């Protein structure tokens, strides 16, 4: 039955209307901001994550994608309640923890979503040959650009909107994250339904709905990226301090 439902979703996508123009999508983003954003970022009348998800599913249908790092499956779960078999984009960098790949596989097998592996142009071996071994240790920004930013940019070109799990409390660089915005860099609408969620909100949602969670979250890794660039975090420390530890880098470039 799952295979039949997934196939039906792919048929709907193949028969869907053409992707709208950038100008049309900018107008959609503006309407979404007015409808869901309340009186401002973080305002009491901001729409709930479920309301944002429902709007996104209705507005974009099969032209919607969800980005997921596989730290947990809360975001895919939230969106799939309104858009079953939605495409979930997983950045398969070639450097992931085994636990992250295991979480990805469980999401594909157990949830009503369509996991899409987004891969770089070069394999790790090809990148080593072209740019030297372990580029991440010498130029983390360049490595992220090749293995995350470019592949995602290329893939997002086929969609009208993407949903992210960015939350305002994660880092100062994310403190002003809106629920809906126009993503100029990628040329589509960007939706952040859980922007207002705290860590407790995320944990509570996962527990309430039995959401799949990466086991590394309970092993000292509150923020999970590529294995070579992710370290355990001391209790009470900044959750993202384990990402690119020791470097003047806090973002991979996907959201900046």
UniProtKB/TrEMBL annotation:
It is an enzyme of class 1 (oxidoreductase). One of its GO terms (cellular component) is cytoplasm. Coiled coil: none annotated. GO terms for biological process: hydrogen sulfide biosynthetic process; sulfate assimilation, phosphoadenylyl sulfate reduction by phosphoadenylyl-sulfate reductase (thioredoxin). It catalyses: [thioredoxin]-disulfide + sulfite + AMP + 2 H(+) = adenosine 5'-phosphosulfate + [thioredoxin]-dithiol. Residues 1-22 are annotated as: Disordered. [4Fe-4S] cluster binds at residues 143-144, 226, 229. Binds 1 [4Fe-4S] cluster per subunit. Its cofactor is [4Fe-4S] cluster. It is found in: Cytoplasm. InterPro entries: PAPS/APS_Rdtase, PAPS_reduct_dom, Rossmann-like_a/b/a_fold. Its EC number is 1.8.4.10. Pathway: Sulfur metabolism; hydrogen sulfide biosynthesis; sulfite from sulfate. SUPFAM superfamilies: Adenine nucleotide alpha hydrolases-like (SSF52402). The keyword Nuclease does not apply. Catalyzes the formation of sulfite from adenosine 5'-phosphosulfate (APS) using thioredoxin as an electron donor. This is Adenosine 5'-phosphosulfate reductase.
């Amino acid at each position: 039955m799952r295979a039949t439902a997934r196939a039906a979703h792919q048929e709907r996508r193949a028969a869907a209307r053409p992707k709208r123009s950038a100008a049309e999508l900018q107008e959609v983003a503006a309407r979404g901001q007015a409808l869901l954003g309340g009186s401002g970022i973080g305002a009491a009348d901001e729409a709930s994550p479920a309301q944002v998800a429902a709007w996104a599913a209705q507005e974009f249908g099969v032209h919607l994608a969800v980005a997921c790092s596989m730290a947990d499956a809360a975001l895919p779960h939230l969106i799939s309640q309104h858009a079953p078999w939605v495409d979930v984009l997983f950045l398969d960098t070639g450097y992931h923890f085994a636990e992250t790949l295991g979480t990805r596989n469980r999401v594909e097998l157990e949830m009503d979503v369509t996991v899409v592996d987004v891969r770089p142009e070069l394999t790790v071996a090809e990148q080593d040959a072209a740019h030297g071994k372990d580029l991440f240790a010498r130029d983390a920004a360049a490595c992220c650009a090749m293995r995350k930013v470019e592949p995602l940019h290329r893939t997002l070109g086929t969609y009208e909107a993407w949903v992210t799990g960015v939350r305002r409390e994660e880092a100062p660089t994310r403190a002003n994250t809106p629920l809906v915005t126009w993503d100029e860099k990628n040329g589509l609408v960007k939706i952040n339904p859980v922007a207002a969620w705290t860590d407790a909100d995320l944990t509570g949602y996962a527990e309430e709905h039995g959401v799949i969670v990466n086991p590394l979250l309970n092993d000292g890794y509150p923020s999970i990226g590529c294995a070579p660039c992710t370290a355990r975090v001391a209790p009470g420390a900044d959750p993202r301090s384990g990402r690119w530890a020791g470097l003047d880098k806090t973002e991979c470039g996907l959201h900046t």
